Amino acid sequence: VRRQDSERYILGRTLIRQVCAAWSGIAPGRLNIGRTAKGRPYLAREAQLPGHWIDFNVAHSGDCVLIAWSVDHPVGVDVEAIELARNLPFSGLAKTAFSEDECSALAAVDPSSTALTFCRIWVRKEAILKAEGCGFSGNLGSFSVAIRKSRQVQWLDQVYHLGTARYWCIVDFTPVPGYVAGVAMPMGAILQRGPNVLKMSVL
Prior knowledge:
This protein is α+β, with helices and mostly antiparallel strands. It is built from 5 helices and 12 strands.
């Protein structure tokens, strides 16, 4: 509908092709990138290296586009522009998309921090669901990325996803001022930070 959204979509897909081309040695325009039944993009098997596979995930909000990738393990990423979320009906959306623990955590914060807290919960949940490959068609209330402890929010670094019985590690970061992002990785993963780069390795 909007030209800006179209440009961000194209930029995200271009980044994916560049990453996959560097991995496979195949020219970006010749890569076969498919989609799962849930719409998650993936690199076709014939472009993967023998004995290994690359997984990737892309997210965009406002003027920020992020791509995460890993070797031999799934990964999920999400980003939100805090300013774009300030006028959202937080309590109504939370009742639909958040667990009871997350709703309680959101209600515990000062009103001036509601937008930031909502976005942080949101990106954490979506990063896990995207890593799982189910997106927001998954059971949103079946797991929690934050809980209320006394009158404060406790952010969980390790989250159990009931649907697949898998544990995920979550790392929050600020890609640029005014945005919040989250990356979901398998247990045992290590995220290495550098200028404009987050690098993951798995032990």
